[in-house]
Protein 1
Amino acid sequence: MEKESAVLLIFTGGTISMSEDPATGALRPIDFEKVQEYLPELKQTGIRIKSIPFIPFIDSSDVQPENWKQIAYIIRKNYDNYDGFVVLHGTDTMAYTASALSFMLENLSKPVIFTGAQLPIGMMRSDAKENLLTSVEIATAKENGKAIVPEVCIFFEDTLFRGNRTTKKNAEHFNAFNSYNYPPLAKAGVHIKYFRSYIHYPEQGAQLYVRTEVNPNIAILKLFPGITEQTVNAILNIKDLKAVVLESFGAGNAPRRIWFFNALKNATNRGIIIVNKTQCSTGSVEMGRYETSINLVNAGLISAYDCTTEAIVTKLMYLLGENESVDIIKHKLSISLCGEMTVS
Ligand code: ASP
């Protein structure tokens, strides 16, 4: 007889688990028992499902690296007892948490599927049930006894994305996420169609290794025409700063002002790692293609290629948490650790 499939639901919160506060009209988390009442279908799946709720549920705008660790610990503790994991999470920072978990869960061989909803589960037109039930199906999908998608993913509306390639793109529509620089891993219609050539499979026999140390001493410096020397210097001189994501223009370009070059060079000389990430959603940084990026190479910046902001921020926090030398961190930034970027 085939072994019954088993999924662990990790309920962190988000709109999926909220209802309107009668006094203020604002959405706020409800409790776990109430959420379960809306989901009788879970009992009919034939899958053994257990849930672990965060107490209390949290809006994902309140999620902190501590919560990423909490999810990683739950997965590590329960890893052998389930075929897959579904993380119910608010959409606002879901792409950050999914990216962080993709780095933390090394050699993952089971699906970890993040999902949520744009409308609370109790509302008539809510997208919660479909998102959750399809995620459960994906989390248990196997071929020849092996998980079809052994990755940290986000499933939303009808598409499965690699988590560390995903960005929240819409605050209103049901298709809230996109992966601009990597194709979807699956599409759900009448059947779920998996695009296997895009899915990452771990080395056979490799054991899950969970690393949860993170260092949040990083900053994002987003360029705009007219940005002042004072603003740039204020950011680059933050106490204990270890790394900066410079959000540049187009293919990784920036103003050629000498004060700007000096500020960047001075920071990299002090051991601050600066990563050049384009403000564009699609495409890659190509330093040296335009004159306006040659200074950035000379100032010691490294390319984020086609990484999302969510992936590069969490990758930096994770690498800095390892307490390795700046050279090793720079090397690891220049390669893809778990499919988060395409090095061109
Ligand atoms: N503010 C909510 C959250 O991220 C939004 C959502 O879940 O869609 O928790």
Note: The chain has a mean pLDDT of 93.
Protein 2
Amino acid sequence: MSVLSTSSIELIARLNRGDVTSVELTEVSLDAITAQDANIRAFLSTNADAAIAQAKAIDERRKAGQPVGKLAGLPIAIKDNMCTLGLKTTCASRILENFVPPYDAGVVEKLKAADAVIVGKTNLDEFAMGSSTENSAFQVTRNPWNLEHTVGGSSGGSAAAVAARMVPLSLGSDTGGSIRQPAGFCGVVGMKPTYGRVSRYGLIAYASSLDQIGPFATDVASAALLLEVISGHDDRDSTSVDRPVPEYSQTVESAPGRLTGLRVGIAREHFVEGLDREVEAAIKQSLDVYRSLGAEIVELSLPHSKYAIATYYLIAASEASSNLARFDGVHYGHRAAKFDNLIDMYSASRGEGFGAEVKRRIMLGTYALSAGYYDAYYLKALKVRRLIRRDFDAAFERCDVLASPIAPTPAFRLGELVNDPLAMYLSDIYTISANLAGIPGLSLCCGLSSNGLPIGLQLLAAPFEEEKLLRAARMFERATDWHTKRPI
Ligand code: GLN
């Protein structure tokens, strides 16, 4: 079994004791990518030479008795929509195929300052639009548990890289579920923080009012540590919130032996037709685990959740149509070789550069924002968004965390939904409300289906209640052994 099967917390302890070096771990990670990624295809690029050089420098500092950052020389992978200085950042799009950013995203600066070693950039649905990573312009990522199934999306590469133990940690971005859903499909821990908790500076925007960066890890405590490293105020992101960052990696372990007094909410609307029976059974068993730990289960209602998908796909597409205007062959991105005039140049460049799903959303968003339809669609969607947030505010008066499935089914088959965009959108039913409301959410493994695919449990909490969320997840992990299951 690979050393990378160990949790990040334990690997960091070994690094700091001198039992293993950062160069050794980085080599194991790069070798695992060479051995496994021809099948899984999680990585769009690797950064071998620079990673080894960085690891060497960290090892030397440690040897010389100098301070080393919290991530201590651990290898990490980053979704390819976050800018990395000097390292190609493509958004899995032809239009950015050759884009090399002249700066690091805020989170990448923080990773480097914490001595994480960036081994590569991971695959995604083009511009993070999708739920299966099949919308990448370059490759389809396969689920390490079963290569015929999707990894989920859009951060599918980052989820698969951790699930297959090619890296112990990775970063994803979550606009409507893109961290939590692939984490659920791949049996790892994935977390979307509260909107504003983590800087979006240098994250190539899909839908700015929904996007949030977050961690993937094999276990809750390691995810807590990575969240602690990337959180914090950044005045280059005007929506970043200036609040102290708790020591999530410490408080996650401070849970008492039992959860007496914890109220776990379940929403009536989440257990309806369309929910796979095995998924439903696994979630109900998870509730039994919480009950046995002393928690109280509270049934409640989120009455506006039925409007979440329509609301989300209007707002996300509207913001995308505006954000993606900059990729026009002049400001950024691919420029067509042949054109007759300026307009022709724009349309040829965008026509060649963007894939079908991105074009579909730009058209939908442009329509929703156009003068004649703004009030009927976009403005209406903003109002419903507020109602969805109010549902959660009311729910969190009655419970501490909300438990639900992460998706209606375990990982679907490759090709099953990709030609039916509406069915793909509907599969986001459990995740998108959290983005509309700006609240934190986490996904962890709570079962395996009869054909051996992971089932994800989602936990949600009120804004900036990440500590509560992580502790509730950690208690579940302590009481079960799902997190110890491995695909390979
Ligand atoms: N599946 C959703 C979408 O396609 C969510 C994507 C995301 O969170 N980036 O928009």
Note: Residues 128-131, 154, 174-178, 206, 316, 428 surround glutamine (CB under 6 Å).
